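Quarterly update, task 2.4: zinc ion-bound model.
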Amino acid sequence: MIAPRKIEPDTEKRELRVLWTDGHRSAIPFKALRDHCPCARCRTARESGRAPLQMVLTTKLLGWKRVGNYALHFAWGDSHSEGIFAFDFLRGLCPCGTCTPFRDDI
Ligand SMILES: [Zn+2]
Ligand SMILES: [Zn+2]
């Protein structure tokens, strides 16, 4: 399974730098993480068509930790910390040209 080998949040650029076990590097904007937060609250909000709440604190990353050996957990400045990002889901958010040659939705 692909997993992050190294995780470095860049709080200035507001993106999460991930070096994966297969050598791939991702720079995933904090905003993309919040826009795709898989927690029930955010999913419900997205499905109901409500625009996700965006303010400065929304994309302020306070901390992160590993959950078991399959996911990452993030704590955000607006005290939202429900989202559990499985590694393959996180990799799916990589906005680089290799990962998303036909996508422009993130
Ligand atoms: Zn959420
Ligand atoms: Zn990529």
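Highlight for this quarter: Strands lie at 4-10, 15-20, 25-29, 61-67, 71-76, 84-86.
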